[in-house]
Amino acid sequence: MALIDYLLGQNKKNSAKQAKDRLQILLAHERSQAKAPVYLAKMRDEILAVIAKYVDIDDENLQISIDEDNGFEVLELNLILPESRKH
Amino acid sequence: MALIDYLLGQNKKNSAKQAKDRLQILLAHERSQAKAPVYLAKMRDEILAVIAKYVDIDDENLQISIDEDNGFEVLELNLILPESRKH
Questions:
Q1: Which domains, from first to last, does chain A contain?
Q2: Once rounded to an integer, what is the mean pLDDT over residues B31-55?
Q3: pTM confidence score
Q4: From the list B3, B4, B29, which residue is nearest A21 (CB)?
Q5: Least CB-packed of A62, B45, B62, B87 within 10 Å?
Q6: CB contact, 8 Å: B4 with chain A?
């Protein structure tokens, strides 16, 4: 399955010892609409706030990218998850 | 980019008229660990609660699957997003 291969493929680039739980979020917005619905930005921010409650987010474990392709703007968030929640 | 192609590919299966904003969440847990960290389930449930605040979730707009591959259990959630938030 392409999506899982991609997700796990990112993992294979590291050594087996570095295998980690991961969270990936993609938010795709069709650009032909005048603008993204306001609720999308609010929902995204609230999702990130939930994640930040449990996980220390820093440059080492988080990658964010925004791509445009085929009429869509895609926000991609990749987070390496720790074995225990933050204190 | 494989991931975006996959996401948009799902869209291409529908007619152009049905192009919709989408949210996709993947949570990959390495199965070699004794069990998934407790916080992962809590975080997942809170993320779903945030989404449910904004979007009516039903069988028509939500697909959830759990796959196992290469030592990982991957929860995949695909949601078609409405143009406006629920009332």
A1: 19-81 (3.30.1070.10)
A2: 87
A3: 0.75
A4: B29
A5: B87
A6: yes
